[in-house]
Amino acid sequence: MLEILRQPWPWYVAGAMIGLTVPALLLLGNKHFGISSSLRHICAACIPANIPFFKYEWKKEAWNLFFVVGVLLGGTVATYFLSNPDPIVVSGKTVAALQELNIEVDHELMPASIFSFENLFSLRGLIFFVIGGFLVGFGTRYGGGCTSGHAIMGLSNLQWPSLIATCCFMAGGFIMVHLLFPWLMSL
Amino acid sequence: MQHTKDEFVETPVIDHPVECESPNDQVAEESLIGSNIKYLFVGVVFGIVFVKAEIISWYRIQEMFRLHSFHMYGVIGTAVVVGMISVFLIKKFSIKTMQGEKVIFHDKQFHWGNVIGALLFGLGWAITGACPGPLFAQIGSGFLVVIVTLVSAVAGTWVYGLLRDKLPH
To answer: How many structural domains comprise chain A?
Structure first.
């Protein structure tokens, strides 16, 4: 059993479990699946700075913060108790494309050549951590949600603004990978 | 469709709690720890799925945007179908919450942030290899440098709050 759990889980298992989070949260207590809201609650709790957007009863939404702490702990459990002994399998075409950009494909979930503390104060660090993170936080809030709130919860509830947002998420990703990325990596 | 909070709909740019995109609609009182701890456990399961299906992997996101792998499309597609069926069943059979309350659904109001903001998020998603959920799971997996990304994401959210009235919606 443990051996099966240690293997990478197939997309249909993961997809089904993520989809079931929607009714789980609704039935546990009328909570709407959406993760980027946690970032807003962190602002409201720690640095509201009298900005109207952050002045609300964040404690009422605290379930969302418990949820993301759980996600973090889940990451720890999976990595230290259920980790896959084999190196990650990356599509050959992607490996070739990344090598062309001088990004070395290693055996972890994230490339160490980018996601390490040595890069923190370099141009790469600025792009991948600071600017990337800023775009995620700013974009999700401006966009009204992220992959969970729009693509999964919103589409589950047949909301057309969520469909538009989901298409724009994907468009942004394609623009980054195909148009901006080669330029950013040449800096 | 529920229209219980339609009075808020006049302003497209949202007032809490409707403007909170993942609102808490429970009426019954909740204690900070006792009531919320169950969401931590749901989060743990969710985080395990993220890691075990390699959804938090920067490489999987690259593959997705390069159309070199079906994996992420399979995950998101299955999640949406399962979510849709679940929501349909909850509505159809008026399934109540554990507290015996009616499940509330909100209609989202379109605003231009759904386009501009979503595009900006897409750019960030492809660089960081993470949407907000995987950020937390990446940190939990030991990629501690992602804490910097998370702090930047909080800063981005804060700056949005600051500039919100000046941005087109």
So the answer is: 2
d(CA A109, CA B83): 27
Half-sphere exposure of B42 (CA within 13 A, CB side): 29
C-alpha distances in angstroms, A130 versus A2, A145, B27, B39? 38, 20, 39, 29
Contact B23 A114 (CB under 8 A): no
Domain ranges of chain B: 26-103, 110-169
Strand-pair partners of A31: B24
- Asked if the ipTM is above 0.90, the reply is yes
Q: Is residue A101 domain-resident?
A: no
Nearest to B31 by CA among A14, A63, A22: A63
Q: Which residues are CB-neighbours of A62 under 8 A, at least 6 positions away? A: A41, B32, B36
- Number of A/B CB contacts below 8 angstroms equals 548
A70-79, A151-160, B6-15, B115-124: segment of lowest average pLDDT = B6-15
The range of the structural domain enclosing residue A26 comes to 1-83
The verdict on A22 and A76 lying in the same domain is yes
Judge: A149–B21 Cβ closer than 8 Å, yes or no: yes
